[in-house]
Design brief:
This protein is an alpha/beta fold and 147 residues long. The chain is built from 7 helices and 5 strands. The chain is 44% helix and 13% strand.
Length: 147
């Protein structure tokens, strides 16, 4: 059974636009069918919106945006979610959707660089999934595969 993973918008940008080599371990797992990326309508809509923003030297024209949209939709599995009760409130309400998606989709982890989300990675929050940075994902994945 593949690991179910949720990516926040900035991690998606690292994958689709910035070609961040730090995502290679996750990309390899996805390519091998050992991990699946989960997305829902709210996260999809945010990513589509952000792909239209000026991204400095990586600003995308309409064709490049369409290619990124097609690519992430071919990578991720879209699910319909119902936000579960009992999740901690993220300091940034715009990031709550990632917690809700991870919880409702029974994700193994949420990969983010967002400080507000990373603060919720503490054990006291008792989340049913891990919250990690892209840099910490390989170590977490290695530890979990040993157990």
């Amino acid at each position: 059974m593949p690991l179910r993973v949720v990516l926040d918008t900035n991690v998606w940008l690292d994958w689709l636009v910035f070609n961040d080599a730090g995502l290679a371990p996750l990309q390899a797992l996805v390519s091998a069918g050992k991990a699946e990326i989960i997305i829902d309508a709210d996260c999809d809509a945010e990513l589509v919106r952000v792909l239209n923003y000026p991204l400095q030297k990586w600003t995308l024209d309409a064709a490049a945006q369409a290619a990124c949209i097609q690519r992430f939709r071919s990578i991720a599995r879209s699910v319909i979610t119902t936000p579960p009760a009992g999740l901690p409130a993220c300091r940034d309400p715009d990031d709550q959707k990632f917690l809700a998606l991870a919880a409702d989709a029974n994700a193994w982890c949420l990969i983010t660089k967002d400080r507000a989300l990373l603060k919720l990675a503490k054990p006291r929050y008792l989340l049913p999934f891990h919250i990690v940075t892209p840099a910490n994902f390989p170590a977490l994945q290695s530890v979990e595969s040993i157990q």
